[in-house]
Design brief:
Strand content: under 5%
Order of helices and strands: HHHHHHHHHHHHH
Radius of gyration: 29 Å
Length: 356
């Protein structure tokens, strides 16, 4: 039988054929949410959360079916996975955005000059500020950093450079992991007991709060610094040893400068971890209405404890106390943001530059 002559077809661009337009996803999402809201309104159970969840499910199913019919099952599955991951990312981001927005709305009204320049000494009701708490937070956190960074840095150097295969290094890692998971109130009780034995029962001073915070900060510094030191290539150490440089000088002039950016980032994260702790400072540093800059005598106010007492023990009327609590919370968030920005700037400044 004679062979059939194949029909001539118009050339097709295989790179662009069978693809959904870019606007398909957003348009389909809007249509899914609108249809879901319309159906729920007919039932009489319209709620933003229900509309969002059911609309997202409808969007995923509709997008998968449409993509399967046009692009194929493989690309449809890829789109489904990408949209699912994006949805969970937005779900995780929503509480953070809501928290920041709520704190801004409630805290900005009370953040004035008086709030940053005055304390709560002889203030009942409206007025007053959190200057004493801000200074207390900076002093106690600064002291905790001075205590924790050298100890954590030296411990990490020992674990990476000197402790390979030694039982002491394994024991240190074990106790660091245990300390990472201890409740903050346990650190506060430890510091309170220690200073009660040294300075007398019932002692509440700023340095006790710094010690409690350092107990929580040291494990984070050790772990982050250890990981950064392990990222330094062994070739750099070997090249230094080949030139006759002793080990301590190699660590000081080669290993630490190479990993300095990561170490600073870890320290900033550790500070952000402890600066908002309330329970250990309630036990160790206490609260006061006056400005106290001496960490060795008398209780010292801090922002977390200030916010706690303003919210838990408000006077009458309650509005001024609640407003001061929100303003204190916003101030604490701003301090953490400034620390992160400073840490990123320092890390960028000292990070190894290409070509060096």
């Amino acid at each position: 039988m004679p062979k059939s002559i194949p029909s001539l077809r118009t050339p097709v661009n295989v790179m662009t054929a069978g693809q959904l337009p870019r606007f398909t996803g957003p348009a389909l999402l809007v249509v899914s949410l609108v249809l879901t809201a319309a159906v729920l309104s007919l039932v009489g159970t319209v709620h933003p959360a229900a509309v969002t969840i059911i609309g997202a499910v409808v969007f995923l199913l509709a997008n998968f079916a449409l993509s399967s019919s046009i692009e194929g099952r493989r690309r449809a599955t890829d789109r489904l996975a990408a949209h699912t991951v994006t949805g969970f990312f937005i779900l995780a981001l929503a509480p953070l955005v809501s928290l920041i927005w709520g704190t801004l709305v409630s805290g900005l009204a009370r953040m004035d000059f008086q709030f940053f320049a005055h304390s709560m000494r002889n203030v009942i009701g409206e007025g007053g500020g959190a200057a004493h708490a801000i200074w207390g937070t900076l002093i106690i956190t600064g002291m905790a950093t001075l205590f924790s960074v050298p100890i954590g840095l030296m411990a990490a150097i020992y674990l990476v450079e000197y402790g390979a295969g030694r039982r002491l290094a394994s024991a240190i890692r074990f106790f660091v992991d245990v300390m990472t998971g201890i409740p903050s109130i346990v650190a506060g009780l430890f510091a309170y007991t220690l200073f009660s034995l040294v300075m007398g029962p019932g002692t509440k001073v700023g340095i006790a709060g710094a010690v409690a915070l350092s107990v929580l900060m040291i494990p984070t510094v050790v772990r982050s610094t250890e990981e950064m030191l392990r990222l330094v290539p062994s070739e750099l150490r070997e090249a230094s040893y080949a030139l006759g440089v002793p080990k301590w000088r190699t660590i000081l002039r080669v290993v630490l400068p190479t990993s300095l950016a990561g170490i600073i980032t870890g320290v900033v994260l550790a500070i952000a971890r402890i600066i908002g702790e309330t329970a250990p400072l309630l036990v160790t540093a206490g609260i006061t209405s006056s400005l106290n800059t001496n960490p060795l005598a008398e209780p010292m106010a801090t922002l977390p404890v200030f916010v706690y007492y303003q919210y838990v023990t408000p006077g009458i009327p309650q509005d001024p106390y609640i407003a001061r609590a929100w303003a204190g919370a916003l101030t604490l968030i701003l301090i953490v943001m400034l620390l992160n920005l400073a840490g990123r700037l320092i890390a960028w400044k000292f990070a190894p530059k290409p070509g060096r």
